[in-house]
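anyone seen this seq b4? input:
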Amino acid sequence: MNDAFKALSDPTRRKILDLLKDRDMTAGEIADHFNMTKPSISQHLKLLKNAGLIQDEKQGQYVIYSLHTTVFQELISWAFSFTENNKDREGEK
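predicted toks r here
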């Protein structure tokens, strides 16, 4: 989960995730949305993949990137655990 939070701390990586929320994309399609080199985008994709936030699949000569929702579900469950604990405490008062 630490890798996921580190990956989410960067605005470029968050924008990549926003793009992938709408549809699966190749690295080139993702790079078209940024004013940076393709190797820089590849580095961001690598960090997102290592954090488990995205996955890739080879299709012919292209690699298609998509969201990997399992890690997002874990992060959301973790965050909601704080609100559930607070509700339990408020009920005890």
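The chain has a mean pLDDT of 89. The domain at 2-68 is CATH 1.10.10.10 (Arc Repressor Mutant, subunit A). kinda curious what u guys think
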